[in-house]
Every structure is written in structure tokens, then in C-alpha cells.
Design a protein that fits this description.
Shape: globular
Order of helices and strands: EEEHEEEHEEEEEHHEHEHEHEHEEHEHE
CATH superfamily of the largest domain: Medium-chain alcohol dehydrogenases, catalytic domain
Structural class: alpha/beta
Radius of gyration: 20 Å
CATH class of the largest domain: Alpha Beta
Largest sheet: 7 strands, mixed
CATH architecture of the largest domain: Alpha-Beta Complex
Helix content: 10-25%
Number of helices: 10
Length: about 375
């Protein structure tokens, strides 16, 4: 079938054009997209040097399934997952499905993003095969994906718009707290950056029972939203605060002279990669959430003493386990999703959506399909 999609040439440009999506193979699923979330990785992908269908967060309806697909059926509401586990490699058998050695578009190539598995041939543009961002390409009216990339959404009330942002931003923030750091009830948490991922760290910390949740951001206008999602305190950082060391002193004042039990970096600013270490007490846990991959310099004294620094990918996501947990928290009213979405766009306004994304105007922007 033919449908409309947003495509990058890999050199910073976006075009809206028609693509051809083929019929599903035995282990594939054809999904009609209803909504696609936008995150900063989508903006980064414009410069990855290769043409691709954009988008890696999405939700929709199953249009057709392959003969060996049994966990979902035509008409089901589904959420797409970009870290598709093979279920057989060492990491999958260890429970680390997010870093599957065979299918992960981040891990498998060993050097950043790679096109991924055999669905490369499933989509064509101008008569030639074209890859999809993280093997999904959700900024398209239809997409053909592996069955392991599809999770049924059993919520009786969740909108497609809300469901679409679970795919990356919500899962990354929530999973970093619950799966990776394993935040304990009664603890103190610091969150650096009040964007989409940071706000999900905030509300996951609240769900986990943290009693102090301190958000640090340079934008004072984010204070109200941080409070809405569960922050107990808000510190306005200065742009020239190297390593947020001054903000760390403010954190310690709020906590009676000690650092927090956990601190999460959600800014995607390489220079702040070590900043969470300055925020935690001795034996505290610092978490680098935003996926910084650049080389940085770290003062090893920040590790004193017995501090732990972890760098989880995608919140250690196990899609068939974690997505239903997130959906359940939403249905109980413990997890806010619609409240995070600042603005929605039709696909034809994708250029405006990316401009808003690059300039940080939204907590979360979502493209919606008719």
C-alpha cells in the first residue's frame, strides 16, 4: 500500500512524500498509526547521514498480521516499541531485552545507530528500499514492524495521543527509576532537567514513594509543571554553573547538609554528564538517563565515597512486561500522560513540529493522524 510519511535525507532536511509499505511477512504486523510522539532523538536523526522514515514513538491500530503472529489481532490498539528483543541472545536470556545483541538498533552495531534487522526491505521510497528510524518510522500513516515491536494496549480509556509517548520518553524516565535505580520509598531524589523524560522520572519517583523530589532546571517557568507531576522542590540553575556544583549546594541545604539518595541527569547536555554525582550523598546512586555519548571529563572526587554511577538504556525496558505496568499506573490515575502533551500537529505541519522541538517549546509534542 501507499501512504504519506515524513522522510529525512540525513543531511538536516525533511520532506513529506509517499512511501510504499509492503504486506506483512509471517512474523510482522502492519500498523495504522494514530499518533506519534516527538523527542530530541528525532531531531538528532536528521543528521545521521542516511535517508529514513522519521519517528520512533507511536501508537495505532493493527491493520494486518502475519500468519505466525498470535499475541495481537486486527483491530487491536497497540503501542510500538523500538527495542525489539530476539528472546534468544545472552542479554535477552539475562532479562536485558533493551540491549538485545541481535535486534537492538543502538547496541547491535556496536557504534551508535544501525539500520537493524530484516525489515529493511519492507518499505520503499521512490522505488528503492528505505530504512525506518529505529526500525519503526512512526511519522507515517502506516508502518510494517516485527511482531516483537508491538504491545497491546488494554486500557479502556487511554487516548492514542497519550499512548504514543510511552514508546520512548515515558518508558525511559519511568524505567530509569523503577527498573534501573530501584528507588526506595522514603528516599530523596534529584532530577536534572524538567523536559519530557525528566517529568517522567519525577512521577516515577513519586509512585516509588520518594518523599523529596527536587527538580533542577534553568527555566523558572517549568516549576509549576514539575510540581504538577510530583516535585516537592524546584531549584533554578544558572547557565554558567559549571557541573551544577552551585545547584548541588542548594540541594544539600534543602536536605539538611547531605546529598540525595538518587540523582537523575535528564538534560542531554554532555557537560552535565557528571552532575548527578555532585547531587548524591555518600553511597548514593547517580543515573545518566539522557544517553550522552560524547567524551567528557569527570573529577573522580565526585565519586567519593562509595557512590554508584549507572547508564541504563531505555529504562531497561522489557516491553511486554513494562508497558502493561505503565498502562496500569495510568488507569489508576497515578501516572499522568495527557497533561504532558503541550501541543499536537497534523502530519502536514511536521516542519513546525520540529521547529518547536528544536527550540524546546513543548514538554511533549505529538503528531496525530486522522
Amino acid at each position: 500500500m501507499y501512504c504519506n510519511a515524513a522522510i529525512t535525507d540525513g543531511r538536516g532536511n525533511i520532506v513529506l512524500d509517499e512511501i510504499e509499505v509492503l504486506e506483512p511477512a509471517e512474523d510482522e504486523v502492519l500498523v495504522q498509526l494514530k499518533a506519534a510522539g516527538l523527542c530530541h532523538t528525532d531531531h538528532d536523526s536528521l543528521a545521521w547521514g542516511k535517508p529514513m522514515v522519521l519517528g520512533h514513538e507511536g501508537s495505532g491500530i493493527v491493520a494486518k498480521t502475519g500468519s505466525k503472529v498470535s499475541h495481537i489481532k486486527e483491530g487491536d490498539a497497540v503501542i510500538l516499541n523500538w527495542a525489539t528483543p530476539c528472546g534468544q541472545c545472552f542479554q535477552c536470556l539475562e532479562g536485558n531485552q533493551n540491549i538485545c545483541e541481535n535486534n537492538s538498533p543502538v547496541v547491535a552495531g556496536g557504534n551508535g545507530y544501525t539500520p537493524g534487522h530484516a525489515t529493511l526491505q519492507s518499505t520503499r521510497w521512490k522505488g528503492q528500499p528505505i530504512i525506518r528510524s529505529f526500525n519503526l518510522g512512526t511519522l507515517s500513516e502506516y508502518t510494517l514492524v516485527k511482531s516483537s515491536a508491538v504491545v497491546k494496549n488494554g486500557s479502556p480509556k487511554m487516548s492514542f495521543t497519550a499512548a504514543s509517548i510511552i514508546s520512548c520518553g515515558v518508558m525511559t524516565g519511568y524505567g530509569s527509576v523503577v527498573n534501573a535505580a530501584k528507588v526506595k520509598a522514603g528516599s530523596a531524589v534529584v532530577v536534572l532537567g524538567a523536559g519530557g523524560v525528566g517529568l517522567n522520572v519525577v512521577q516515577a519517583a513519586k509512585i516509588s514513594g520518594a518523599v523529596r523530589i527536587i527538580v533542577v532546571d534553568i527555566n523558572p517557568e517549568k516549576s509549576a509543571m514539575a510540581g504538577q507531576f510530583g516535585a516537592t522542590d524546584f531549584i533554578i540553575a544558572e547557565k554558567n554553573d559549571t557541573g551544577l556544583l552551585n545547584a548541588a549546594q542548594e540541594v544539600k541545604k534543602l536536605l539538611g547538609g547531605n546529598g540525595a539518595d538518587y540523582a537523575f541527569e535528564c538534560t542531554a547536555i554532555p557537560q552535565l554528564g557528571a552532575a548527578p554525582l555532585a547531587m548524591v550523598r555518600n553511597a548514593g546512586t547517580a543515573v545518566q538517563v539522557s544517553g550522552i555519548e560524547q567524551e567528557i571529563t569527570i573529577d573522580m572526587r565526585l565519586f567519593e565515597w562509595d557512590k554508584i554511577y549507572i547508564n541504563p538504556l531505555y529504562g531497561k525496558c522489557r516491553p511486554q512486561i513494562d508497558f502493561p505496568k505503565i498502562i496500569n499506573q495510568y488507569d489508576k490515575g497515578s501516572l499522568l500522560l495527557e497533561e504532558m502533551i503541550t501541543r499536537t500537529y497534523p502530519l502536514k505541519n511536521i516542519f513546525e513540529a520540529f521547529d518547536d522541538l528544536s527550540k524546546g517549546r513543548n514538554a511533549k509534542g505529538v503528531v496525530v493522524f486522522p
